[in-house]
Recover the amino acids of this structure.
């Protein structure tokens, strides 16, 4: 019996040590979120859904703002995880260095991040968010995230650490024969997505996305609660620096879907705009950008859009 107990104890100790070791090597390759839960508190943030996560590059932004030495972190997630609401608001409060007063905050907006499912009236808001139930966004390693939200066995941490650099090395060979893409976070929180960009593949992705959002417009509606939380977040951030509201560009067909779904969008966000330093609405500008699927900017266009935002911020400072 004692021998059996010793063997069990030894086995459990080995398992615990293996998990501990894997937790300590978790990094930007682990998944699309882990870094955002394990990096230090930040003084400047980019906020929004996956459009911002892929579409605004912190390093380009900071270099595009005149006389700036800002260290900006992309704290955007996805439409499911970071629409405006209590869950995202609490995460933002945990991530910000509350001593900072000179930050720069880019808050990206679109109709979907201000919406809710009609059928979710009696459900806990954003309970499926990767942020839900997490109160620690700075620990390294972040055991709570790995236990609660990491969707794979922990062996995937090691596998991704080996596999993703190899995939990145051969990324130039991506083509439409591949069934999917892969992604890897930069140290500043920007998600670098590697995906085929040949026209046939992109058109198929666009058709899928446009159909998805047409259907979404049938079972979603604007949410007063989300609009209120947008106001609250902008007001909170204003205590720690300058807040800039941005509506990122999308494919013209996606924009048409959004305009039909929420034609009074700018009116809905008017209170938040009054509390901000300015509003840059790309939907009113010439759209010469490229997209991976009609919804997310390619890396080339993300750089162009980010530089435009930085130059716009610099222009506001000169006024």
């Amino acid at each position: 019996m004692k021998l059996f107990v010793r063997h069990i104890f030894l086995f459990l100790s080995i398992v615990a040590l293996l998990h501990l070791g894997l937790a300590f090597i978790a990094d930007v390759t682990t998944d699309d979120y882990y870094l955002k839960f394990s990096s230090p508190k930040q003084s400047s943030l980019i906020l929004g859904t996956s459009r911002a996560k892929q579409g605004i590059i912190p390093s380009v932004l900071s270099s595009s703002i005149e006389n700036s030495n800002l260290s900006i972190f992309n704290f955007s997630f996805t439409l499911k995880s970071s629409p405006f609401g209590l869950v995202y608001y609490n995460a933002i409060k945990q991530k910000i260095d509350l001593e900072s007063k000179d930050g720069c905050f880019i808050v990206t907006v679109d109709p979907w991040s201000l919406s809710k499912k009609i059928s979710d009236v009696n459900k806990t808001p954003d309970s499926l968010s990767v942020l839900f139930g997490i109160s620690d966004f700075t620990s390294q390693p972040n055991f709570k995230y790995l236990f609660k939200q990491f969707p794979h066995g922990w062996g995937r941490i090691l596998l991704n650490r080996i596999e993703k650099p190899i995939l990145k090395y051969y990324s130039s060979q991506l083509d439409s024969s591949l069934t999917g893409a892969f992604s890897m976070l930069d140290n500043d929180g920007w998600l670098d997505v590697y995906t085929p960009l040949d026209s046939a593949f992109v058109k198929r992705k666009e058709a899928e996305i446009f159909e998805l959002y047409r259907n979404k417009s049938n079972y979603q509606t604007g949410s007063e609660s989300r609009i209120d939380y947008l106001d609250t977040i902008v007001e909170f951030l204003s205590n720690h620096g300058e807040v800039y509201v941005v509506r990122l560009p999308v494919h013209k067909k996606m924009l048409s879907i959004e305009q039909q779904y929420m034609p009074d969008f700018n009116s809905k966000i008017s209170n938040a705009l009054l509390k901000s330093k300015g509003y840059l609405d790309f939907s009113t500008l010439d759209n010469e950008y490229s997209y991976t699927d009609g919804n997310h900017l390619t890396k080339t266009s993300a750089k162009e859009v980010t530089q435009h935002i930085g130059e716009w911020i610099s222009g506001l400072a000169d006024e």
In short: Residues 42-132+153-318 form a domain with the Rossmann fold fold (CATH 3.40.50).
